[in-house]
Design goal:
Helix content: 40-55%
Bound molecules: adenosine-5'-diphosphate
Order of helices and strands: HHEHEHEHEEEHEHHHHHHHEEH
Number of domains: 3
Structural class: alpha/beta
Number of helices: 14
Distance between the termini: 9 Å
CATH class of the largest domain: Alpha Beta
CATH architecture of the largest domain: 3-Layer(aba) Sandwich
CATH topology of the largest domain: Rossmann fold
Strand order of the largest sheet: 2-3-6-1-7
Strand content: 5-15%
Number of strands: 9
Shape: globular
Length: 344
Amino acid sequence: MSDVTVRPEPESEAELAFEGALRPKSLGEFVGQTKVRGQLQLLLQAATMQSRTPDHILLAGPPGLGKTTLAMIVAHESGRPLRMSSGPAIQHAGDLAAVLSALIPGEVLFIDEIHRMARSAEEMLYLAMEDFRIDIMVGKGAGATSIPLDLAPFTLVGATTRSGLLPNPLRDRFGFTAHLEFYETEELEKVLERAARLLELDFEKAALREIASRSRGTPRIANRLLRRVRDYALVHRTVAGRDAVDAALELYDVDPLGLDRLDRAVMHGILTRFDGGPVGLNTLAVSVGEEAETIESVVEPFLVRTGLITRTPRGRVATPAAWDHFGLARREASVPTALFGDGL
Ligand code: ADP
């Protein structure tokens, strides 16, 4: 149902290649997240001075904010190789044992979406993180025995969009947790200036500023909208200025706040079906035909940060700004569908 243009997950192989080219390689090149950058810098320097592996790091926050990029930077800045895996790829303890036993000393292991790893693997990870050791079970039932296996010292970098889903014993084993925040417009402007420079694109400053303000606080979306506007300017043989941005983003249905169709469907649900709320997460998810997890980890944080909804103990409530943004009077019975696009 949702338009992919402003979804924060990578869209395609082409986008992944494009992202690879734009990914900052050092903390110095990484825009924004000033506090987290300072904390990581200290952590990496301290480890280097003591000639040990850096502490395990948990990166939490919505998709597209730079978690994978930071994992790569941790490896690069500490001069260590990086091995990449993900929660969904670790469905059995054996999958994790295979990854861990293949690590070379000092390696950085990145596990994306770590909250989706199998429970049995999580338990194995506790011991691995704490003592660089695992117990491998051999056999079944009464005859089963466990064989201890020493691992090479490593640094785990876990990324999650749902830190609340991680069991406490796992969360506690990370020496450092960074909560990544949505970016300010000025920061996204810097991300875009850098991207335009690297790609040798000639964009007007006002155009970059407008793209930045419509990018859902997310660098991945900023870079994607930059591509869309570049394409538009190329095809229409026009300068990449403010007019091109407005026309391209209208074509792709990105509204002035950067809301996409799913954001608007959620707002539509809260404002009209539930009269502004409060409405519970699951009810809301069912009403828009989406997974509760997507609503909670991707849609809701942005709507809260934009000031369109608030979370209360009784559920999600639309703010006065939400009624204004959609041009609705509170308790109005019908809504012009054009505001929310078709098919809702
Ligand atoms: P996540 O792992 O959180 O989903 P990524 O690290 O894959 O996000 O970031 C997506 C893209 O956004 C990267 O390829 C990179 O080009 C860009 N990006 C993310 N954070 C920054 C940043 N702070 N500065 C510059 N570019 C960034």
